[in-house]
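Format notes (please read before filing issues)

Several people have asked whether sequences and structure tokens are stored in separate files. They are not. Every record keeps both together, in the order shown below: the sequence lines, then the token lines. Line labels are part of the format and must not be stripped during preprocessing.
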Amino acid sequence: MNKPRVFGGSLNSLDKNRLGRLLTAMVTPFDAQGEIDYQQARRLALALLDSGSDGVVVSGTTGEAPTLSKEEKLRLFSEIKSAVADRGAVVAGTGNNDTKESQEVTKEAEKIGVDACLLVVPYYNRPTQQGLWEHFKDIAQSTTLPCIIYNVPSRTVTNLAADTLIKLSQIDNIVGVKEASGNLGQIVGIIQGTREDFLVYSGNDSDTFPILALGGYGVISVASHLVGIQIKDMMEKFLNSEAREAAKIHRHLLPLINALFIVSNPVPLKWALNYAGFPVGKPRLPLVEPDEKSANLIQTTLKNYKIDLPIPKG
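Then the structure lines:
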């Protein structure tokens, strides 16, 4: 359990489950009527792969999963997988706070051909650690897909304890965690206690460099919509023992990261993408566009950064 983790030095070589180190938690584009713009979603997925991402996470927090119907999610998985094909990984956000429904959506996503699923800690119903263990175990046993657990207590209230995750990591197809607790002590415990090939992803862009330094694997990123090549460069430099240069890039990106979370994600990100020239529409209610003060801060911050995302002409 305590052996150093060896995943290979290149960001370009995907791990055994073909997921990659830099995954983007993709927004869901909407049209003027608030319906999913599936063609624009396909374009965005490909643009993200062209700007550094190894794959995309579809229908997560950034994708406004709570406002998507089951039918919308499944079509989105199908459209994105069809567009991406073998160019990168498609991780489907199939988990919610209903174990049975999570199993059903995961099974359907597997039929579509996605590469993995993302299973969020159940929100609102506040299960115990035993309940979390049984919830994730039952979903994992209902599929052959690699499963990444998503711990984000700022949104779910409930924290998935390190001991529970370590126990879950012993299930073969639970292959990793998106850790957005911000608790580096907990993350150290996870890295030390899980099996050697277990993938610990940063769930917060601001934590990516520290988690890599602790032995983490990669990041499921929001900021990579805009600066994916720069994030990839930071990670590549760290893996190539250029920690000082990697830290410099990470520090440079922090003001942008902070601006993208000035109000609830994905509100600032969607505004930034629209401003940059890649239309993704407004968020769905109950989320609304940022107030004028927040929008001005996002706009001012963006002017200090090179945008890596290919912007459509015209």
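For reference, the curators noted about this record: The CA atoms of residues 166 and 194 lie 5 Å apart. Residues 243-259 form the longest helix (17 residues).
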